[in-house]
Amino acid sequence: MSFTRLKIGSGSPTCTPFYSSSSGTSPLASPPPLFRNRSCLSCQEEYRPENTVATCKQCLEGKNQEIEDLKSSVSTLKERNEELKVKVKELESKVKFLGWSSPVDHRSMDLEDDRYSCSYAPDVVLVASDDGINVVSAHKAILINKSPVFKAMLRNEMEESQTSRIKISEVSYHDLCAFVNYLYTAEVNLVDDQRAQDLLAMGEKYQVKHLKAYCENFLSSKVNASNALKYLTFATKYKAEDLVESSLNVIIENMNKLKLQDEYEELVKKDPHLVIRIYESYHERKLS
């Protein structure tokens, strides 16, 4: 401990600092350093500490970096886990859609039983409307199992059930091929936005919900300020609510710019109810 000794003399009093230790008390020119050199617990090297931490500055910085790296890894793993959950959900949906054995199964076919399979040979053709010549062969079993609309056509006394020929209106041959292939495999190559729109429309018309959702997810990822109004109109027509929400989000974020576009003016004239929905969503989100 430090204390002072008062000297009495002719002048003003002066104080002399002392430092007390186990060896006694002695005057010092300056106080001792607060921390002396010590050995780092991590690298065992001697260092002069700036505080009470038992590791040197380099090791401490290294440990802090390790902690940050671990935090980053945990965050990445959480994100990856969420991605895997989405992927698993998609695969479960795909398995449910495919749902039964391959169309090359040899078991007999009974059109009154949803649990049937079908034989090798196709027994129905679908005719594309773009030329009326190119046709796509398929199995009634597949069509009935995957589409309530085809099920009604082929189970009831309709022309399609008698002729085994189904005319598909307003669709190209290539889109029809992609549509039928999806019924068998739950896979499709969406080469562009137009293909996705065409197949979404077919999914809605023939109530193939899995295909519609697949195309809707694809289009939702493509929405931007330049196409949001177009996609909103399209999504509203085909009751694609996820795409509607994606489009509205982009429209609301870019409201001031989009109001100046010619496409917006056309929308006001052609579909004022949709414009009202835009403004309702805009004000709801501004108030929330």
Automatic annotation (TrEMBL):
Coiled coil feature spans: 60-94
UniProt KW keywords: Coiled coil
InterPro entries per the UniProt record, alphabetical: BTB/POZ_dom, SKP1/BTB/POZ_sf
Coiled coil listed as a keyword: yes
Tagged with keyword Coiled coil: yes
Listed pathway(s): Protein modification; protein ubiquitination
Location of the BTB domain: 122-192
Protein name, per record: BTB domain-containing protein
Organism in which the protein naturally occurs: Stephania yunnanensis
